[in-house]
Design brief:
This protein is of the alpha+beta class. The protein has helices spanning about 25-40, 50-60, 70-85, 110-125, and strands at about 5-10, 15-20, 85-90, 95. Helix content is about 40%, strand content about 15%. The N and C termini lie close together (about 10 Å).
Length: about 150
């Protein structure tokens, strides 16, 4: 089951409640690969040899600042997809947040930034759990868990 969390953000004096839902494994893999390709194309200093864990840890640690050197037109789809992890919650009814619907209830651009950051943190939170994995020696086993 995907992780979720609720956040309340004050948007120009009014509290707005959002539910952030983690992307599916395949969606997050796709998002991550696109982000890496965009970052690499912009000359970002992505650690080599770290595999998926290294890439995810880099994105989790640097957040949206990681795409600061990227051409906006290439970064926008990635930013919008992170925003799509959020739903506005009003009277227990959820409405997906999209760039097209957000202006109806979000007035402050910093609210959009905060929503994207919360989605990024949730999607890459597993890189902060547990220790680094290592290759098993012959005859040994490694226990893996998906949260």
């Amino acid at each position: 089951m995907r992780q979720t969390k609720e956040v309340t953000i004050t948007d120009r004096g009014k509290p707005l409640t959002f539910k952030i839902t983690e992307m599916s494994a395949t969606q997050l893999e796709d998002w991550t690969m696109r982000a890496v390709l965009v970052l690499a194309g912009a000359g970002s200093d992505i650690p080599a040899g770290g595999g998926v864990e290294g890439i995810g840890k880099y994105l989790a640690e640097h957040g949206l600042a990681a795409i600061g050197a990227v051409d906006y037109a290439k970064a926008k789809p990635l930013l919008d997809e992170m925003l799509g992890c959020a739903s506005r919650v009003v009277d227990r009814v959820e409405e997906k947040v999209t760039p097209e619907t957000a202006d109806a209830y979000i007035e402050d651009m910093s609210t959009l930034f905060k929503l994207r950051m919360e989605a990024l943190k949730l999607n890459f939170s597993f890189f902060g759990n547990g220790g680094q994995s290592t290759s098993p020696e012959k005859g040994s086993t490694v226990k893996l868990s998906a949260r």
